[in-house]
Amino acid sequence: MAYVPHTPEDIRGMLDVIGVGKLDDLFADLPADVRLEGGLDLPDGLTEEEVRRYFVGAAARNHGTSELVSFLGGGVYDSIIPAVCDAIVSRSEFLTAYTPYQPEVSQGTLQAIYEWQSFVCRLTGMDVANASMYDGATALGEALAVAVAARRRQAVVVPATLNPRYRRVVNTMLGGTGVEVIEAPAGPDGTTDPVRLAELVDDKVAAVVIQNPNYLGLVEPTDELAAAAAAGGAVVVACVNPVSLAVLRTPAEYGAEMVVGEAQPFGIPQGWGGPLLGFFACTDKHKRRLPGRIVGRTRDNRGQKGYVLTLQTREQHIRREKATSNICSNQGLNALRATVYLAMLGTEGLQELGEANLVRAAALRRRLALIEGVELPFAGPVFNEVVVRLPRPAAAFNVFARSRGVLAGISLHGLAGCGEGDLLVAVTEKRTSRDLECLAAVLTEYLADGEVAE
Amino acid sequence: MVPDDRKYTQEHEWVVVEGDTGTIGVTDYAAGELGDIVFVELPEPGTEFSQGDTVGTIESVKAVADLYVPVSGEILEVNEAVADTPELLNSSPMDDGWLMKVRLADPTEIERLMDAGAYSELTGG
Lengths: 454, 125
What we know:
Helix content of chain B: 10-25%
Strand order of the largest sheet of chain B: 1-2-3-9-8-5
Strand content of chain A: 5-15%
Number of strands of chain A: 14
Largest sheet of chain B: 6 strands, antiparallel
Number of helices of chain B: 5
Largest interface: A-B, 5 and 8 residues
Radius of gyration of chain B: 13 Å
Oligomer: heterodimer
Structural class of chain B: alpha+beta
CATH architecture of chain B: Beta Barrel
Order of helices and strands of chain B: EEEHEEEEEHHEHH
Number of helices of chain A: 12
CATH superfamily of chain B: RNA polymerase II/Efflux pump adaptor protein, barrel-sandwich hybrid domain
CATH class of chain B: Mainly Beta
Distance between the termini of chain B: 8 Å
Number of strands of chain B: 9
Radius of gyration of chain A: 25 Å
């Protein structure tokens, strides 16, 4: 298609036809104070070579985890990504971000999505999984919308120890619908208090979110929390790191009816925060409210196996304003990545991966606790993240560690009773004992001689 | 042929009243328009609704329709046979495919529903 701009003569001609004096008159309805005065303040155009230099220079200022030692987690983890993931997702047959239009002619893509759904169901213990969501945070927001529709109640309870970025997304997604978001406090051990939760779950509460492990890395008392939710008639929505399901019970076993989370650790780079991969699974009774695409396996009129998009009457293009969601796609390419990753690991590989995370988290706790002045405020079981309490601000330590080539962690100041010395440190199977020693050395140096370094 | 033993709504539901109980279903016309019905979601007995509330959904292979309650009251019973075999709604919408029984909270609401003649006119005879 040729690019044909409107010439001044074209515009004049069109305005004459509709009887409008000048172009601005078309925008007369917009209040003056929201309209841009004068033109856009843009620099002069650049040549192709100048643009190339600009971006190469800008990109050179990025520093990734291939050169830095990273203990950053908080929902997005620095994991080992096997080369096969890149090799397969780079194939042109698969290279689309979305569920294909005219999906049934893309049988390979649909089969890959079907396998992804099957993996999610096996990991979570749920009956049905969708083709994926944009990320874990929006998956949680969608799950709460489903619970609100299913229970016909207008409030949800989220833990104070929920990932604060998920909390913001939940507030955004539910805010306009009049749903009240109630916060369940954490006890002194850093996990959600089941007694306080039970007091909050009344007949207005549609759902209770259990994030496990929680944002402080701690394994929650899932049975007690689920019982408190059930006693008040609320649906349990579990929000999990799927890698942890290699070593922890499935959410189905503690009574969750919906399970969501972030599958980025399954072979997807951190990528400065995205693109990510949300997953959403539920029990059979919620399947007609499950948002997004679902791929089903069937047989065609010649008896051959085939894959189709199924239960589409849930979706916005059919159910219109009654749909629980406006998502009509999925995170196709990243779902494929995760599928390749899990297929390659297999059951045993996944268990080893989970155990590797556990072992390293334990080693991290032991090692950092040896450093003078460092405390471990929470003693409960963890999966792959640990809170350490420093005698000085964690944010300042992060700046110091960065100058030594280490991304030390996330400052927790202000979250769920955490002070400014509290630092969230994550490990994965990628962190070696040398990496751990490196972090310990930087922290020891900082605490011994921090004033000079700052 | 629209049976004259019951009342009808704009949303293509019917109500048969016996004492203070109303038996509710969807009309032959509605079932035909929806096509092959594959799923019916019905309310839980014991819940109370007001006239016109959405109480469930009817899903066919091509569309989803909301199920409204044509009279206010408490749900006494739902037709489990329809939940298990939704095709009953296509084969016998006016009879075996009834959906729910409601204890009428306000019997005067019935008077404001359509009779067979008015409903027949609505659906083009």
